[in-house]
């Protein structure tokens, strides 16, 4: 049996650490990924960092930049379309499973979360709250494979810049969509829950397309 002093020195997997930094927004799209800087930041040698960067590139989270080396990837229109197609299917199924398997305590927690969100209007805070709510719904599916699949997808979603909550009317629209999803879960209505979740993701995709189009138009000016 290992002593506490030994186990406390065990370091985190560098790939997991980098993925956490991406999800937290500490490594936004376009960030340069240099072995030396990251090794110093993570407190490890360059070899495991190099291996982690190879994995990030293979996963599509890193790409070759205009200069030598890797950067955090930007999502193209086609990648965005593919990402949301998968997300709509998976989250729709996860929400159906949540309606079928969530406990009363889990349903009540989801209700409390959407109620608390009504008092917020800051896009950055709402974006973080949105992540937490979606994660809690997936956890309520009680399906480990679904949880793992959407956990991986969530990191790719972190490559999306900004927040859909900055779009006019999106705060109220998303709040209503969340309430419909949660009420369907609480009622144990799988069909209604999946339909509401798919509608919610499709609405987010529509706004993301608009944001991408506006951003491209700005760059062309």
Element layout with pairings:
Elements: H1 4-7, H2 14-23, E1 32-33, H3 35-42, H4 46-59, E2 62-64, E3 70-72, H5 77-101, H6 104-117, H7 123-139, H8 144-157, H9 170-186, H10 190-220
Helix pairs in contact: 2-4, 2-8, 3-4, 5-8, 5-9, 5-10, 6-7, 6-9, 9-10
- Shape descriptor reads globular
Question: Could you tell me how far the N terminus lies from the C terminus, measured between alpha carbons in angstroms?
Answer: 65 Å
Helix content: 55-70%
Order of helices and strands: HHEHHEEHHHHHH
Strand content: under 5%
What is the strand arrangement across the widest sheet? 1-3-2
Total strand segments: 3
Strand count, sense and closure of the main sheet? 3 strands, antiparallel
Uncertain segments are 1-11
Number of helices: 10
What is the average of the pLDDT values?
A: 89
Structural class determined from secondary elements:
mainly alpha
Whole-number radius of gyration? 19 Å
Task: Report on the architecture of this protein.
The protein is mainly alpha-helical and 221 residues long. Helix content is 70%, strand content 4%. Strands 1-3-2 form a 3-stranded antiparallel sheet.
